[in-house]
Design goal:
heterotrimer; A alpha+beta; B alpha+beta; C alpha/beta; B: alpha+beta; Histone, subunit A; two-stranded antiparallel sheet; 3 strands; flat; C: alpha/beta; Amidase signature (AS) enzymes; 39% helix
Chain lengths: 478, 95, 490
């Protein structure tokens, strides 16, 4: 009989912190930009340059630590991790090994209604590496240090997860917390959130862990799920055929759906960590900690309760809205500008969701402003435009964040509220469609829909459908 | 402490140094002598002594999160042995 | 009048009074360098054109009153491990022999702001690793007192240039004695300030927790004056001391009455030359005669300083020198198979033997399984050494001792046995480990007429006490230049 195995998974999650400048120099962290335009002697490892720590990095790292129930290391230090690679300009990365800023945290996840805690071993601060691009013309690599020195936190979990679903739930929860804190936008596709998966398998019931591998290059939740399944199978196959799992780092190729070891005899995994003598200890006082704690923004669970109390919208809507910091922000801002919560929620839940799906976007990629949504809602409420026109205008807001009143004016989309003109048009439609009139009068209620549609078409959509209905019924009842 | 060929080769990988056979023999000798010499520290009882990385205590030296650097790519790249398209050019790192 | 025999402050005064122009002073320097460089090899780079241009600009600023400090218009030489924008900066290494920085070391900037004329860059032991300036890729510097002798190191070029009167003063750097020991060997004065006093920004690191920039000049007055200019807080160096410069020159008073001076008995125990010992003790006697309370005591920990120092400095160096890899600047090997081969060949060809030796040692002591036994142990030893000094400074204002156990060695003598060379650092390295200030000044001559240096150590940030004691001692004797200069009719 074949044995049953369980998967044991721990994650190392790297998150780029949303500071304006790099961790050790005054270079911009802005994404994109021509190669090496956001660099200076410090982040290109020029001789004699020295690092000076960005205070914002420490505060954001602490904020994440507090939100994930960690103990903050009140006397922490930076260490050098030494290894040669061209994307690492000093050939050492400034990181934290001996005294990471946060330790012993946990977050609660939920899969299929089952709740469990995933423990966080530590969170440490470090600098990101530059980018290497292969140059096919010269068969060499080109180094761009724009990302070199961008602040990262690495969140190391305990091996507490047992399935891809748990891993995804953990990552989603983590992402939401960090987004809510404003500590990072956590985009997997842009690399501002990256997860390395440590995975081993063992027989169910076993107390000891199997040999684990570390999987890198996972750029989406789907890739993570696929890589976990694949690696689990690979390890089980090895064990069942009497072979051994080798402790190694592997690289996932998502297009080919397989992984391969990233070994080189030139890389001894011996990083010779030691305290960086160019940086001084960070002493985090109780006062500083309290100050950061007091400034923590409202997190999701608190928001849910408040939305229920303040806005009286359905639980389902609350779940969707608070599942993205961006959506929640737009929602709250539109309300603060005077729009009714239910109306805002509707626009976000229906049209926004539809368009996001159409454009294959994440809520975090939304570009439109709450201000223009609020104005649109106002236009509808004041019956300046009807629902159909509003949807059309919203599409423009969604893609280009246009100012709705100006757009409506410029494109002549305003509802015609001149009753005389409307009555005249309806009379013409009624006269031109005797068959439909007859159908309606003989009890086919649906026929009125056709007449309303014809009227709206004749009015180029600029009529209030309720008004059209009322006048039409009046005429037909004569 | 006797330094073996393996140790010298291993340290060579760590330090990215390639020594000739002659240099290797010398390095084995030098390192072995030096390690023996510094083992004098073992005479000291340091059980409760904290490891002191900085001789005097300065803490919490920070910069504010404000962009202060302007683009200086051309200047910075000037010293590179090889460059292309605004990048430092290196032997390929991809298989 | 021979301009080059003046001290920096004397020359500055003459420039200020209009007796000498900055151009005159600069030309005198350049001329002297031309005359002597073939013999002494103090410089890696002499920037004749740039110096003359600076001289003109500075003269204008002096004339219109923008520059009035004591060093305005005075030429200076900078050790070749401090970056200067647009000027070759090599660390006397093949691996950096084409490196032109785009930024200037903060200490040099401070001098420039004070009106210094940068003459050029001085020779040194490669990456400051050595005590003789023989490990330079650009050849050894010779001691102006005897060209068969080393000038000491690693700031040998700076010390020899000052002794040979090629330049009135120079900047050096001191990681384990690299200012104080060459100053002693060349019969000039040098200060290693408290760690953190002078910004390390732009100083190419050897041992980051130990490195400190300081002045080398003919006398204590010059050194104190230069210190006032270069000791400034710098936001770019996290280890930079926050307070503004002290008024070091106010300590230039010939009065040591009641000053408590301790002489560590352990410094005179074994391995020290009789001539060195006698001269240093005689100097202590002079200070005693002037009213200082001089007392012998046991400092302790002396024999542990060198092992701890070489572990810490080599470990930090192995990491600091990783950036020299043929990618961003400096030398890259001509032919290579792949990336790692490029790294290895570049570094093996680019670094000299002593640098490689320390990188290997440093990489080893940090490697997996050895970190605690070596590196942590050395940091703990450092704590004990600091404690020993703290206890001493609870009793004494200043500690007096020799700079080195011998006077300048013959060229080639110490390269044979590294450990023997390291042992020459016995009196200097503990000061770096403890972060203390130290001054080295001439106090006599050995039987061959070579200068003997004495060292005065102070508690952290108490440069003033050592300046005061050094000044008082200096008042008891005349400055003596190398006979060779007089013999040449200079």
């Amino acid at each position: 009989m074949s044995k049953t195995f369980e998967t044991v998974i721990g994650l190392e999650v790297h998150v780029e912190l949303a500071t304006k400048t790099k961790i050790f120099c005054g270079c911009s962290t802005e994404f994109g930009g021509a190669p090496n335009t956001h660099t200076c002697p410090v982040c290109t490892g020029m001789p004699g340059s020295l690092p000076v720590l960005n205070k914002g990095v420490v505060e954001k790292a602490i904020a994440v630590g507090l939100a994930t129930n960690c103990t903050i290391t009140q006397n922490c230090k930076f260490d050098r991790k030494n290894y040669f690679y061209p994307d690492n300009p000093q050939n050492y990365q400034i990181s934290q090994l001996y005294y990471p800023i946060c330790r012993d945290g946990k977050i609660e996840i939920e899969v299929d209604g089952n709740k469990k805690f995933v423990r966080i071993h530590e969170i440490h601060m470090e600098e990101d590496a530059g980018k290497l691009v292969h140059d096919p013309f010269t068969d060499s690599s080109l180094v761009d240090f724009n990302r070199s020195g961008v602040p990262l936190i690495e969140i190391v979990s305990e091996p507490d997860m047992r399935s891809a679903e748990e891993v995804i739930a953990y990552l989603e929860k983590l992402r939401l917390i960090i987004q809510y804190l404003g500590a990072s936008d956590c985009k997997l596709n842009e690399g501002s959130m990256r997860a390395d998966v440590n995975l081993s398998v063992r027989e169910v019931g076993s107390e000891t862990f199997g040999t684990r591998t570390e999987m890198k290059n996972l750029n989406s939740f789907k890739a993570i799920a696929r890589a976990i399944e694949n690696e689990k199978e690979r390890q089980i196959d090895l064990i069942e055929s009497g072979e051994k799992v080798i402790q190694e780092t592997r690289r996932w190729d998502d297009t080919k759906e397989y992984s391969y070891p990233m070994r080189s005899k030139e890389d001894a995994q011996d990083y010779r960590y030691f305290p960086d003598p160019d940086l001084v200890p960070i002493i985090i006082s109780d006062e500083w900690l309290e100050q950061i704690r007091a400034n923590q923004p409202e997190l999701r669970d608190e928001k849910r309760i408040r939305y229920k109390e303040e806005y009286d919208i359905p639980d389902y809507d609350i779940d969707i809205l608070t599942n993205s910091k961006k959506l929640a922000d737009i929602f709250e801002e539109a309300i603060s500008l005077g729009a009714a919560p239910k109306k805002v929620s509707n626009w976000l839940m229906v049209e926004t969701m539809r368009l996001m799906k159409e454009h294959e976007m994440d809520p975090e990629d939304l570009k439109f402003s709450a201000k223009n949504l609020a104005k649109l809602i106002e236009l509808v409420e004041s019956k300046a435009i009807n629902g159909t026109v509003a949807k059309e205008v919203f599409e423009k807001i969604f893609t280009d964040d246009i100012e709705p009143a100006e757009y409506v004016e410029a494109n002549g989309l305003k509802t015609v509220n001149d009753e005389g003109a409307l009555t005249k048009t309806i009379q013409e439609i009624v006269d031109a469609n005797p068959k439909s009139v007859e159908d309606y009068k003989s009890g086919k209620e649906k026929a009125i829909g056709f007449l309303v549609g014809q009227t709206m078409k004749a009015m180029k959509g600029k009529a209030d459908p309720g008004e059209v209905n009322r006048i039409l019924k009046e005429i037909l009842s004569k | 402490m006797v330094i073996t060929d393996e140790t010298i080769d291993y340290v060579g990988i760590l330090a990215k140094l390639e020594l000739s056979e002659e240099e290797k023999e010398q390095a084995k000798q030098d390192m072995s002598n030096m390690l023996e010499y510094v083992s004098k520290l073992n005479e000291l009882d340091t059980k409760d002594v904290p490891a002191m990385s900085h001789a005097f205590s300065v803490n919490n030296v920070f910069r504010e999160d404000v962009v202060t650097n302007t683009e200086d790519r051309e200047n910075l790249l000037k010293n590179s042995p090889e460059q292309k398209d605004g990048c430092y050019k290196v032997p390929k790192t991809f298989d | 009048m021979d301009l080059m025999s003046l001290t920096a402050v004397e020359l500055g005064k003459k420039i200020k009074q209009g007796e000498v122009t900055v151009i005159d002073a600069t030309k005198a320097c350049l001329e002297r360098i031309k005359k002597l460089e073939g013999d002494y090899n103090c410089f890696v780079t002499v920037d004749e054109e740039g110096a003359l241009k600076q001289a003109e600009e500075i003269q204008k600023k002096i004339d219109n009153g923008e520059l009035a400090g004591p060093l305005a218009g005075v030429p200076v030489a900078i050790k070749d491990n401090m970056c200067i924008e647009g000027m070759l900066t090599t660390c006397s290494s093949h691996i950096l022999d084409n490196f032109i920085p785009t930024y200037t070391a903060e200490a040099v900037l401070k001098l420039k702001e004070a009106g210094a004329v940068i003459i050029g860059k001085t020779n040194m032991d490669e990456f400051a690793m050595g005590s003789t300036t023989e490990t330079s890729y650009f050849g050894a510097t010779k001691n102006p007192w005897d060209v068969n002798k080393v000038p000491g190191g690693s700031s040998g070029g700076s010390a020899a240039a000052v002794a040979a009167e090629e330049v009135p003063y120079a900047l050096g750097s001191d990681t384990g004695g690299s200012i104080r020991q060459p100053a002693a060997f060349c019969g000039v004065t040098g200060i290693k300030p408290t760690y953190g006093r002078v910004s390390r920004y732009g100083l190419i690191a050897y041992g980051s927790s130990l490195d400190q920039i300081g002045p080398i000049a003919k006398d204590v007055t010059d050194c104190a004056t230069i210190l006032e200019v270069i000791c400034q807080h710098d936001d770019k160096d996290s280890t930079s001391y926050c307070e503004a410069a002290d008024d070091f020159t106010s300590a230039l008073v010939d009065d040591v009455k009641g000053m408590k001076i301790g002489i560590p008995r352990d410094y005179f125990a074994e391995g020290i030359d009789e001539d060195v010992k006698n001269n240093v003790l005689a100097a202590a006697k002079k200070l005693e005669e002037k009213g200082a309370v001089v007392e012998e005591f046991d400092l302790g920990m002396v024999e542990y300083a060198i092992p701890a120092y070489y572990i810490i400095a080599s470990a930090e160096a192995s990491s600091n020198l990783e950036r020299f890899d043929g990618v961003k600047y400096g030398y890259r090997t001509a032919e290579y198979r792949d990336l790692h081969n490029m790294y290895k060949k570049t570094r093996s060809e680019g670094f000299g033997a002593e640098v490689k030796r320390r990188i290997m040692l440093g990489s080893f002591v940090l490697s997996s399984g050895y970190y605690d036994a070596y590196y942590v142990k050395a940091l703990q030893t450092k704590a004990l050494i600091k404690k020993a000094f703290d206890e001493a400074f609870a009793k004494y204002d200043v500690i007096l001792g020799p700079v080195a156990p011998t006077t300048a060695l013959t060229i080639g003598e110490s390269l044979q046995d590294p450990i023997k060379m390291y042992l020459g650092d016995i009196y200097t390295v503990s000061v770096n480990l403890a972060g203390l200030p130290g001054i080295s000044l001439p106090c006599g001559y050995d039987k061959d007429g070579m200068p003997v240096g004495m060292q005065l150590l102070g508690q952290t940030f108490d440069e003033k006490s050592i300046i005061k004691a050094a000044y008082a001692f200096e008042c008891t004797r005349e400055y003596k230049r190398p006979d060779a200069l007089t013999e040449r009719g200079l």
